[in-house]
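hey m, so remember when u said the C-alpha cells were messed up on ur end? i reran from scratch. heres the input so u can diff it against urs
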Amino acid sequence: MDALLLSRLQFAANISFHILFPTITIALCWFLVFFRVRYLVTRQPAWEEAYYFWTKVFALTFALGVVSGIVMSFQFGTNWPGFMEKTGNISGPLLGYEVLTAFFLEASFLGIMLFGRGRVSERVHLIATLLVAAGTTMSAFWILSLNSWMQTPAGFEIVNGQFIPTDWLAVVFNPSFPYRFAHKLLASTLTAGFLIAGLSAWQLLKGSATPGTHKALRTAVAAVMVAMPLQFVVGDLHGLNTLEHQPAKIAAMEGVWETERGAPLTLFGFPDEGERTTHLAVKVPKLASLILTHEWDGEIKGLNEFEGQHPPVAPVFWAFRVMVGVGSLMLLVAAVAAWQVWKGRRRAEVVLPKPLLWTLAGMTFSGWLATLSGWYVTEIGRQPFIVYGALRTAEVATHVAPANIALTLTAYVVVYGLLLVTYVGVLKYMAEHPVKHAPTDLTTAELGKAGV
C-alpha cells in the first residue's frame, strides 16, 4: 500500500472512532435538558434519577469524543499537510470558530453540569445543562459547515494555489450544509434515542430497572418515533441536493453505469468496475429516477460519464444499502415500541414483551451502524477529491514512508478497539448497577420505592 491509501485508512479509522461519540452527545444532552425540566416541573424523583444516570453516560461519552477529536486534528498536519497549506484560509477559521464558540462553551459549563448539583441553584444547574447542549450543537454546526464546504465548495477563489474566501456566508452556508446539518442532528437523536432505549431495555431484562428507567425509555421511544420519519424526509431532500451537486456520488450509490432516463432502482447486486457493470442485479424499473428526481423518466447520469473522477463504486454502493436497511429496521422497531408504550401509557411502569425488550437491547448501538455507513457514503463518495471538483486528495497527502504510517495505523486500531470494548463494558456495568449512580441525596424511602 502506498502513503496515500494508508493515510486514508488511518484517517478513516480515527474519524470512524471519533464520530461515534459526538453522534451520541449532540442529542443526549438535549435529552438531559428534558429530564431536568421535567423534574423541576413535576418534582418526581424518577426524572432526577434519569437525569443523574444519563449525565454519567454523557460525561464518559464526551470524554472519549474530546480525546479522539484532538488526536484526529493532528492528522491534518501529519497525514494531510497539503490540505491546510492550500485551504487553511477557509478551514482554519471554521475550525477556530468551533473551538471558540462551542468547545469553550461546553468546557466552561460542563463542570457545573456534572458537579454543581447541590452547590449551585437549580436554575443555574439547568442553565449550565442547556448551555452544554447548545455547545454540542454549535460544535456540530461548524464542523459540518467545513465538511459540507469540502463536498460543495462555494464562496472562494483560488489564487496561486491557495483557496481564498470571497463570501463567508456562501462558505458557511454552502449548498449542501442545511441538509447535512439537519440530517446529522436527526441521526444523533436516533442514535442517542436507541442507546437510551436499549440500555433501559437491558435494565428491565436484568431486573435492575428503576423508576428513572421507565421515564427514560418512554422519552427515548417517543423521540425516535418522531425523528425517524423526519430523517427519511430530510434524507430525500439531501439526495436531491447531492444529485445536483455530486452526480458521480449518486451514480455510485445506485450502481448506474450508463446515463439513462427512467433508471431502475438496484436493490442488490455486485458492482464490477473492471467490466463497468453490476452483476446479479435485482432491479425495480424506473424507481431510481422516481426517488432521485421525483419523475418517472428523470435522467440519472451514469458512472461512465465520470471516468477517472468518480469514487470507488462497491464501498459506496454497499454502505448506502446498509444505511437504508438499518434505518428501515430502526423505524419498524420504533413503531412497534411506540405502539406498546402507548397502549400502557396509563401505567407507572413500561411493560413490553420480552422479545421486544431483547430487540431494543440488541439495537442499542444500531445508530452507530447507520451513522458510520452514511459517513462512508459521504466521505468515500467525495473521492478522488478532498475539495470536490477543486482539489484532489492525492495532491495533499503526506510523503512520510508507508511503513511508518502502517505502524501508527496499527497502533490506532488496537488502542481504539480496546477503548471501544471498554466503553461498552462500562455502560453495561452502569446499567446493571444503577444504585452506584443514583443521586446521593435521595432519601432511603425514595431509594426503596425505586427498588434500589
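this time it looks ok to me. The first helix runs from residue 3 to 42. if urs says something different then somethings off w ur setup not the seq
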